[in-house]
Amino acid sequence: xxxxxxxxxxxxxxxxxxxxRKLRELRQGLMTEADDADGxxxxxxxxxxxxxxxxxxxxxxxxxxSQLVNDISELMMATAAAAEGxxxxxxxxxxxTSFVAENTYLKIQGNGEVVVDLSGKYAxxxxxxxxxxxxxxxxxKAALDRARDVDDAYDxxxxxxxxxxxxxxxxxxxxxxxxxxLPQKGWSATEVAAxxxxxxxxERKKIIEKHPEAIGNLDGxxxxxxxxxxxxxxxxxxxxAQKHRAEVQxxxxxxxxxxxEEFEKHKGYTTYSxxxxxxxxxxxxxxxxxxxxxxxxxxxxxLIGQKENGAPKYHLLTLDASGEKDVRAAIATGxxxxxxxxxxxxxxxxxxxxxxxxxxxxxxxxxxxxxxxxSTAAVAWLGYDAPPAAPILGDTSDQNGxxxxxxxxxxxxxxxxxxxxxxxxxxxxxxxxxxxxxxxTVDHSYGSLTAxxxxxSTKTGVVDDMVLYGSPGGRADDVHEYNVPEGxxxxxxxxxxxxAGLGPDSSFGHxxxxxxxxxxxxxxxxxxxxxxxxxxxxxxxxxxxxxxxPETNRPDNQAAAAGAKKTAAE
Length: 570
Known about the structure:
- The chain is an alpha/beta fold.
- It folds into 2 domains: 5-165 and 190-197, Ferritin; 312-569, 3-Layer(aba) Sandwich (Rossmann fold).
- It has helices spanning 5-8, 14-43, 49-102, 127-163, 189-198, 201-210, 212-215, 223-266, 284-304, 353-371, 410-432, 446-455, 505-508, 535-545, 555-569; strands spanning 106-108, 114-116, 307-308, 311-312, 315-320, 328-333, 341-346, 376-382, 438-444, 465-469, 489-492, 519-520.
- A hairpin with a 2-residue loop joins strand 3 (307-308) and strand 4 (311-312).
- The longest helix is centred in the first third of the chain and has 54 residues, at 49-102.
- The radius of gyration is 28 Å and the shape is globular.
């Protein structure tokens, strides 16, 4: 049957995700039967023709069951890949319908044809309107092309299982029949989730023990597993960083002694020379970075060592100490794998693990308490390199990068990719468990640019609510550009916050509080860094996190909303 626009609008990955779970259960049942058959054969001690016939029969049964396990494993992974593809298609369909919402003179017919209404504003014709129509046609074509690719790929894999021509993904070192020992290159979060959930508890434990570096930041597995893997890594990372700092310190001290000695010899010179000013130590920057990394890792080590009622208070969901940049980390309070509500808190300029993770977790705990601790998890997410602050925003001596980073979108673009992977990994794992968390992003300052950029391309159904506060710009010129349900984007800007709306519209997007369709929540007279000191702001964000409508009858909310409406009208 030909795939058409009317059909793909009804595509939904839920049924395929359900089928993948059932195939996983079937696989586990077959593996149990295979183990039972093998065990029964090994327990036979008698001899004779009948006994040998029984052994042969059990051996044949075991062989058949093993082949079935391989077949079911391939079907399960093929179905997971198809579910990911359908998720892509659903997202592309949303992009088409959102494009129409942005450009109301466009309409998509049931057969996928685009109609451009040239009446009213565009009476007599408009090249702009016609070009937008062409853009929409291209978006529809992209959705249909992706749908056909997904359908063809799934069909081929199903037929290959039927005729036995598929190549099993099992690797030589794998402990699990029909599956590789580690996720394969190019796997989506949905495929990773299917693979991870198909393993036994013992198999997962062994992978974490042997390959924690491959598991700690792997999108699609449980956050509990990521926490376990990262806890195995943190001590080694800290020790390595401390050794490196000590080595650089020795180089620095040796060089500084030479510089000081040379300077003493020539400090009496009155004419300009290379010795009239003390030479800068060439190891200064390297020592600074080495010290920062130790402090970052020490902070993480101390935080995850805290206990509450005998259990870890925090969970280390992301750990990246690679390179010379600041350590990236995401630390959660609450159980992300089970919580009905999950909030990801994305910080802005000058934020580092060493200096700010404590306060981030303080806000996360405040949010979780107000939203309902039993049903909520909150993540302090610093999975990107926040740009350094401008000097007018405070001391910049403990930051990395240039001031130019704050006025460009480069770090937001990079961070958006990581944030989308993190969120889609949560969604994929929870879908594999048959649940769907209510996920909210709570994004401050440059973090709102990062989260806004992510929301332009995240898959549909992942982010349920988005809060942008103290935002220089959320990257969008129209609220429909966000892959977030309509009416579920919120913004706040304190009157004393000079950063709010500061970014250039051409690259940062419009000020969210003035963007039609964005709901304004509580603000006050405070400045850029004081939102969480406002009880009404905390309450609003907590209600949003809990999937509730925030109060809108407060005077400041009404004033903000009225101001935004007036600005939009002008």
